[in-house]
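Suppose a colleague, Dr. K., hands you the sequence of a protein chain of 144 amino acids and asks what its three-dimensional shape might be. Before reaching for any lab equipment, you can write down a predicted structure in token form. Begin with the sequence itself:
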Amino acid sequence: MISWPPDPEHISHAMSQAMAPAFSLAAVAAFSSIMHGRMTAVIDRIRSLNEIAEDDTARGHLKSDIPRLRQRVRLLNNALHLALLSGICTSLLLVVSFGSAFLQLRHEYGAGLLFFVAIGLLGAALFRFSQEVRMGLHEADHHR
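The predicted structure, expressed as tokens, is then:
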């Protein structure tokens, strides 16, 4: 039977269990900020290369790097979307956990599934980001 108002101990327990998802959400936010900064830098580089005149023989060869830069933007964009989806799942996890605690419902399986999906999406975002980082490191060797 549901008692009203909800048991403060039950809600307090739900709050203590929310620490891991809250830290995960903070990590996703920081990670997204880093990826956005990198993506902005790569897009700025593409714009600067596009401004090189066609008849500029001294710097015209630099334009050949634009397809590689576009691939980096695609990887970063994909990683950013995956990270944001992870953040959405984590937020939903927190809402479900507190809503369930407030209504005194069992939520362990649903919360576990949401956390699994959120961490899986974050892992996929990290993988995409690692591909972009590797490509960015090789880019330095490309211009020797």
